[in-house]
Write a structure and sequence with these properties.
By secondary structure, the chain is of the alpha+beta class. The longest helix is centred in the N-terminal third of the chain and has 60 residues. A hairpin with a 2-residue loop joins strand 3 and strand 4. It is built from 9 helices and 11 strands.
């Protein structure tokens, strides 16, 4: 791209500069055409008025000479002189059409540029005077005017082109340079160089926003690619162990190394169930992602939704010896009640997994501290989460260091996060190792 740069602004900048110059020259050309049309008409009108005025003055002068002596001894030199000053010639005739007198060289003047006016004395017509005008007069005026006008146009065009070029260089650089950088980044990304960014984002207004949006979009796409790669790697890792156990155990039974005892078959069954749970979790995650796009958002009492979810978890809590406390305050939010029950169930299930027997889990609902927001919150007295792991708890298949001995695939909070975002809400997690964890879901309230 560097070899194609013109005046430091590149091909796009050069085109913008040419466009500026073209607009300036076009404006001058249009102005010249309009001026020529208007001024040409004005000049023609002025010439006609001058010719009419001169012809009328010659007729009056001839009438004055007639009053003194009549046509017989009339002295028309004053009329000839008046016409001569305007580069014109006159011819006077009486009422019978006889020529009374003519200016010298009257016949050499073009007859097509002539005006005939009556000579009137005391209200009676006594003759007529024909005034012929030189064709050079108007033509020379127009030619001289046009010559001067074109010289001024050429000077104006040169100055305008220079100003337009300078302005274009100043304006085109902050427009063309950032766009060319983004074009180079797009081409590089299309060629497989995924980590190319537009460095030193410049430009003005929407150009800067465009480049920043491109960088943010690129980062988001890279992050999505990373998550997809991690998802495939995590699924492969999670499936590898039970598949390897199943393969090894079956081969051992086929080879006669081990017997098909109930204990061995039960072990194989546990691995099969583990695979089934993993597939079920993946299906739930895919369903959550799909549901986030197909939610039916209606006004619901969030406390009633939370109470229904808690009712389904009563037996598991009782079996685990964990006390489930409920402090539910009515608050109406816009949500999909079925999916929101699933969110609360996932939160309660997570809390139950990480809370030892004799512990306590608190389920709350009601207005949030922020105006116009409702919340549902689950607080447990479990093992807690280290601070460095908190930003990753909603990632798919993420399992903390202290959760390695607890069953699960690590997608519970990922499902919660996906569904809550589909509700235009948010999820926040607060925790301290050894003191428990608190997960809060916030949704927009409704007065309906």
């Amino acid at each position: 791209m560097g070899r194609r740069r013109i005046a430091g602004v590149g091909r796009l900048g050069a085109r913008l500069s040419l466009a500026f110059i073209a607009v300036a020259l076009a404006a001058i050309a249009v102005n010249a055409a309009i001026s020529a049309e208007i001024l040409g008409a004005d000049i023609n009108t002025l010439v006609r008025e001058q010719e009419h005025g001169l012809a009328s003055a010659v007729a009056l002068t001839s009438g004055a000479a007639f009053r003194q002596t009549g046509w017989a001894d009339v002295d028309l030199r004053s009329a000839y002189a008046l016409a001569g000053h305007a580069d014109a010639a006159v011819q006077v005739r009486d009422t019978a059409g006889r020529v009374v007198g003519s200016s010298p060289h009257f016949a050499s003047f073009p007859p097509e540029r002539a005006r005939t006016m009556p000579v009137v004395v005391r209200g009676q017509r006594v003759g007529q005077v024909t005034t012929r005008f030189s064709s050079k007069t108007a033509a020379e005026m127009m030619r001289e005017f046009e010559a001067r006008k074109w010289r001024s146009r050429l000077i104006a065009a040169g100055v305008a082109a220079l100003i337009a070029f300078v302005v274009a260089l100043v304006v085109a650089r902050p427009i063309a340079r950032p766009l060319e950088l983004m074009l180079a980044a797009v081409r590089a990304r299309g060629a497989g160089r995924r980590f190319v960014r537009v460095e030193n984002v410049g430009g003005i207004g929407v150009i800067r926003e465009l480049l920043e949006s491109y960088n943010q979009t690129t980062l988001a796409l890279d992050e999505r690619d990373r998550l997809q790669r991690n998802l495939v790697a995590d699924v492969a890792h999670e499936l590898r162990t039970p598949v390897a156990v199943l393969q090894a155990s079956h081969e051992a039974m086929i080879d006669g190394v081990t017997d098909s005892t109930p204990e061995n078959l039960e072990s194989l069954r546990e691995e099969v169930l583990r695979l089934a749970r993993m597939v079920d979790d993946l299906q739930r995650l895919a369903a959550a992602e799909s549901a986030a796009l197909q939610l039916r958002l209606d006004p619901h009492d969030l406390s009633a939704v939370a109470a229904e979810a808690a009712a389904t978890m009563r037996d598991p809590f009782a079996a685990a010896g964990v006390f489930l406390e409920q402090r539910l305050t009515k608050v109406r939010v816009r949500c999909d009640s079925t999916r929101m029950r699933e969110v609360v169930c996932n939160l309660l299930t997570n809390a139950l997994k990480f809370t030892s027997p004799g512990g306590r889990v608190l389920l709350e609902s009601g207005p949030a501290d922020v105006s116009g927001v409702g919340m549902v919150r689950v607080t447990d007295t479990g093992i807690g989460i280290p601070a460095d792991e908190l930003p990753h708890v909603s990632e798919r298949f993420y399992r903390g260091r202290d959760a390695s001995d607890i069953s699960g695939s690590g997608i519970g909070l990922a499902i919660v996060d996906e569904l809550v975002r589909g509700h235009h809400g948010g999820v926040s997690v607060a925790s301290r190792p050894g003191s428990g964890t608190q997960v809060t879901v916030e949704l927009p309230r409704t007065d309906e």
